[in-house]
Amino acid sequence: MSYIGVTVAALCCVVVVFGGLTLSSDAQLDTSFYKKSCPKVHSIVREVVRNVSKKDPRMLASLIRLHFHDCFVLGCDASVLLNNTDTPTKIESEQEAFPNINSLRGLDVVNQIKTAVENACPGVVSCADILTLAAEISSVLGGGPDWKVPLGRRDGVTANRTLANINLPSPFSNLDQLKDRFTAQGLNTNDLVALSGAHTFGRARCTFITNRLYNFSNSGQPDPTLDTSYLQQLRGECPNGGNGNNLVNFDLTTPNTIDNNYYSNLQVKKGLLQSDQELFSTTGADTISLVNTFASNQDAFFASFKASMIKMGNIGVITGNNGEIRKQCNFINKKSAELDLASVASKESSQEGMVSSF
């Protein structure tokens, strides 16, 4: 789900470099962008997310992760939602990139939201803004902080699977690798530690912790940064040679709630992913003091988390007359016209785990 601090100055302009491709954002976003054109958009999104989460509490973490995986590739332009297409232009879906395949959840929920919003305000609200609103609402419904979401993003007209494979952090990343991924998006160390706190809820697949439990770095031994009692618990849930698709809670104490227990877990060597524990167990790392601060002060975590979410949501945004407002979130408008369908169901993953570092 499967990384998510600091000041509201995060709303400033951001220039992001994606492997040779530079995206510049004027950040022409406004929290009251839809005040006249779609005044009930927030309540519409909230109603759909609230109803879905009643049946599937994990969906809140999945929607935050979906927003993260969108913004780290081509900016926050809803490119992650686009399906494979050959005409009128070829699009290779980011959903099939390694960090996303068989793991992205919430695609159908976004389509439900889009349908409800289109019924109220046709052709007005972008899929990119829907993703951003759904992430903020998921935070609130999960017990986390709220914030006024800057709006006015427009949707991109392409996707980039290659960049998804390059830009998204891995659950096996060391601290330097994590910092590199975040720096490439204009995010700093505080953002890295704050946004990682999204692992306070949600689940991960056993396949992404098996090496930590049985053969860390091909040593034939478990990861030495893993608490021994927690190791035995995880081995019970993820037996060697067992089903790699079995799911394990990120937070062993409050798995469905956004709180600061994620950081307390790191302090006692109970971070689930290697990339989680790296924040605290890397000798001499500047992330250690941040983990300690957030572990002892939930208000400080919440303040940084929401500031970093705003900052992340500003990466590479498309505004003004650029891009488009997609009629269907899974296809650019030219494709939607070609299909001539009122709605097209997205390809929801058959697996529901967390693959990448969010």
From TrEMBL:
Top-level taxonomic group: Eukaryota
A GO cellular component annotation in the UniProt record: extracellular region
E.C. number(s) listed in UniProt: 1.11.1.7
Molecular function GO terms recorded: heme binding; lactoperoxidase activity; metal ion binding
InterPro entries per the UniProt record, alphabetical: Haem_peroxidase (IPR002016), Haem_peroxidase_sf (IPR010255), Peroxidase_pln (IPR000823), Peroxidases_heam-ligand_BS (IPR019793), Secretory_peroxidase (IPR033905)
Alphabetical keyword list: Calcium, Disulfide bond, Glycoprotein, Heme, Hydrogen peroxide, Iron, Metal-binding, Oxidoreductase, Peroxidase, Secreted
Co-factor requirement: Ca(2+); heme b
GO biological process: hydrogen peroxide catabolic process; response to oxidative stress
Cofactor note: Binds 2 calcium ions per subunit.
Residues spanning the membrane: none
Annotated positions binding Ca(2+) 2: 200, 251, 254, 259
Catalytic activity: 2 a phenolic donor + H2O2 = 2 a phenolic radical donor + 2 H2O
Domain Plant heme peroxidase family profile: 28-333
Residues the record marks as active site: 69
Role: Removal of H(2)O(2), oxidation of toxic reductants, biosynthesis and degradation of lignin, suberization, auxin catabolism, response to environmental stresses such as wounding, pathogen attack and oxidative stress. These functions might be dependent on each isozyme/isoform in each plant tissue.
Family, per entry: Belongs to the peroxidase family. Classical plant (class III) peroxidase subfamily. Belongs to the peroxidase family. Ascorbate peroxidase subfamily.
Protein name as it appears in the record: Peroxidase
